[in-house]
Each structure stands twice: as C-alpha cells, then as structure tokens.
Amino acid sequence: MADLQNLLAKKSFIELSARERAKALLDENSFRELLDPFARMMSPWLPKQNIVPQADDGVVVAKGTLQQKPVVIISIEGNFQGGSLGEVGGAKIAGALELAVEDNLKGIPTAAILLLETGGVRLQEANLGLAAIAEIQAAIVALRQYQPVIGVIAGSVGCFGGMSIAAALCSYLIMTQEGRLGLNGPQVIEQEAGVQEYDSKDRPFIWSITGGQQRAASGLVDAYVEDDRQQIQQQVLQYLIQGQPELHRSSNYDFYLNHLQGVDTTVQATPLQVRTLYQGEQA
Q: Can you tell me which residues the record assigns to a coiled coil (predicted)?
C-alpha cells in the first residue's frame, strides 16, 4: 500500500514540455522567460527547406530562483526537430550563459541549469549549428568558474552529438533511467559501422550502454534519479548548495585517456566491461 501511495504521489518530469519543465524546477511565480514565443525568434533557414519553424526555435530560456538562489534555466524541446540546435536556438543558449557570467561579475551569483533533450546540431543548419554549439561549450567553461552548471538528461530523446560534449563540460550531470547520453546516436553508428556493430532497434542493448543507469554506474554522471519532479528539483538544489566540484570531470582527462587506451575495439564491450573500465573492481 505504501509503495502504491508513493507511486501515485510522484509527478512525471519527462511528460512535461520544455517550458513546463523549467517552471517545475523554479520557485513559484519566479519564472520569467527571455525571448519567449511572442518575440518570434524563429529559424530563417527551416522555411527555405519547407520545414515549419517554431516560434521559440525549440529552446526555452528563463530566469528565476530555486530556493531563492538565482538561476537561469535552459530547456530544449525534444519534440521539435528531435531537440536539434540551429543558429537561433544555439544563440539563445550561448547568450543566456554569457549573461549569467556577466551577472556573476556584477555580484549576482547566477548558476545555470540545462535541461537537455537533443540530438545535437540541426542538419539543416549544420555549420551555423556547429558554431553555436562551440559558443555554448565556451560559455559553460566560463560560467563554471563562478557557479555550477547543472545538466539534466531526463527523457528518451537523450543527449547526443555536440551537445553531449557540452553536457560533459557541466559541473554536474543528472540522469533518469529513460535518459541516454552518447557522442553519436545509435542510428548514426549503425549507418556508419553497420547493424552488426550497433543495432539501433535493439532498445534494451542501447539503454544498457548509453542509458542513465549505466552512465551512473560508470561514473560518467553524478546522480541517477527517478522520473519525479520533486526528486529532480531536490537533486539540482543539492548541487547548487554544494557549489563547484573540486575537479570537473572534463579536467580529469588523463584518467579517462589512460583507461581508454586499454580498450579492445575489435569486440563489442558489454555494459559490465564498460563500468569496470571506469570504476575498476567497485563496479
């Protein structure tokens, strides 16, 4: 009975839209959206290819507070073009992070929360999207000198491509069981290396390699939580209070390079082998 009550009390985070997710994390009535849909900041490139654009280009940027701590939340809508980033959406994210840096220089300790549901760069805006993602990555590195940058990968769209590198630069990463994280998406790997190497239709296998539980067990993310708004909010708040980590994961590259040099790429690694690679016997 207690388990049933706990289940009924939970409210899904994944089922929310990008804008609703941002509101769910912030203190009540503190949500203030920057460049909202009424600003009509749409991609000029999608209509040229007969693709209907979205008024916010699939990126929601909001300022507010979490337990009275000033934050900027950047939430990507995975249901629009697979959460892919182009010129406008990428510029919104980079600009928001750069403004957060300016806040800190002015004595306003603004942290950033990235809600990542993205396949990476938008193919229809390839070079522009790549440039925008590079600016996002530079802004994350600049901001994390002052305040933590917290990434949340909750839904099944996951986080891939150039934005997976941005995720790796975050001070902390939070994932759910449904989330996925990887440099290349399953379909891209299958297309380039063949179905024998990576079957994108084998969902249990895909999640066993790139899913939230596996990434947490491998030490590649900091927290593994359930799909519950309150749990995710509390975990984000914990990292805000904790502040910057002693060593950012991306600064510990010697550890990862040394371990990766011992990988046998002629065979498909199992989930346990991946965990053991990074975590040793404790995996």
A: none
